[in-house]
Amino acid sequence: MELLWYVAYGSNLHAARLGWYLSGGRPPGGLRSYPGCRDCRPPRRTLPVLIPGGIYFAGESRAWTGGMAFYDPELPGVAAARGYLLTRAQFADLAAQEMYRPPGDDLPALDEAVAGGRATLGPGRYETLLRVGTADGLPMLTFTAPWRAADVAWTPPAPVYLRMIADGLREAHGWSSAETIDYLAGRPGLVGHWTRPRLVALLHPAGECGSVEGTPPPDDRVIHDRH
Predict the structure, then answer these.
(1) Is residue 216 within 8 Å of 173, Cβ to Cβ?
(2) Side-chain half-sphere of 204: how many Cα atoms within 13 Å?
(3) How far is CA 191 from CA 71, 105, 155, 223, in A?
(4) Each residue of 171-188: pLDDT tens digit?
(5) How far apart are the first and last CA of the chain?
(6) Which of 86, 89, 97 is nearest to 24 (CA)?
């Protein structure tokens, strides 16, 4: 298996954000520098996807402060995500950086995740690999925490992190600002903290105008099962 789909549901929905994992460096507004991947070439393809389950925000980000996005396949509804076609080595190095490990390991647990749908590399955040579907005959994989959304306290995300997710949703799915706010407003961790007026102000700060309108045709946003 040389190629696979990395499925991003958090800040890596934004292609420029993912670029810092691939090429290395420190993104604007971030507190962490990344070593980058052995293969720093951009993804071969991207595609918008919807996967069963949902995202929630918990913990404390060492890169952005505030809560981090996690995926729980048992939450009701669907999670809006973005598939990036990467090499196995790129995915392994990306996962290592998310896990605060040095890149360079080819991640043998990938085969376990592809075959069985799940592999746990450790007890920490982003140390659980999940297979969330298949596209063009290639496995679609993501990483998340080992716990369920209901098992942890929810934490509101920092503005810079949430704005990156919102920009990534609009970039990947072609959503309008209203559609993006509709999707984000009810997420665990945002409710009671990020009201709709605050989300509007985040997406349209003073002095900035315009919005991304339009959505891809329904057949371009397929809900992938986990088989």
Answers:
(1) yes
(2) 12
(3) 17, 38, 10, 25
(4) 999 999 999 999 999 999
(5) 17
(6) 97
